[in-house]
Amino acid sequence: MHRKRVTIPRSWLIPRKTSKWIATPRPGPHSAEESLPLMVVVRDLLKLADNAREVKRILHEGGVLVDGTVRRDARFPVGLFDVITVPALNKQYRMVKSTKGYFVLIEIQPDTPRKLVRVENKTTLKGNRMQLNLSDGSNIIAEGDVGTGDSLLISLPERSIEDIIKFEVGNLAMVTGGSHTGMTGRIKSVQIVRSSMPNRVTISTDDGDIETIIDYVFVIGRDAPVIELEAGI
User: Fold this and answer.
1) 183 and 210 in contact (C-beta within 8 Å)?
2) Would the pTM count as exceeding 0.85?
3) Do 210 and 203 touch, CB atoms closer than 8 A?
4) What is the bridge-based pairing of β-strands 91-97 and 65-66?
5) What whole-number distance in Å separates Cα of residue 30 and Cα of residue 27?
6) Does residue 173 contact residue 185 with C-beta atoms inside 8 Å?
7) Domain 114-165 adopts which CATH fold?
């Protein structure tokens, strides 16, 4: 349930030596290395409480929603592009990654929340229906031309598809891992590697071209990002 604070992932933007132990994310929609427990989000990032007891009281009273759903588990994993809502403050936040690789929260408009998810895989079900396996661990039934690597803009908490952004040259993308984490630009080319190595993607940014593996590329829009993404840390 806990780990030593000095062993936390580098993406956690919290002090490492203020105490010995810290909560770990429970198995769920995001992996342990690519998420923060809700306890840390509420206490250390939002600063809505001073200690674990206060966090648990807030969550028990339904004071925090993740992707439009009340979450009472202090170890619930919160990951990239998840939307955190605090009804008592009429505020909403989105989890993003900064250019230094840290998970940070940015405040967004307190209206009907929307979320961007990536299609990781797809399965054909009985009746020729298509099930999409998404980057946040959820599944959704969809129709039309949707491929692996495409991004879906979905409404919350209904999780209905509002838009499909294709993984193709010319569209905007964000790098979510590696040395170029947090950088955004347009997909310039995709190199298919005929081996067990991952395919490579070249992205054109304001500072020049960068190259990364396809697993780190998250399409975020066509002419402009479809969600707020600014993170200055």
Assistant:
1) yes
2) yes
3) yes
4) unpaired
5) 7
6) yes
7) OB fold (Dihydrolipoamide Acetyltransferase, E2P) (2.40.50)
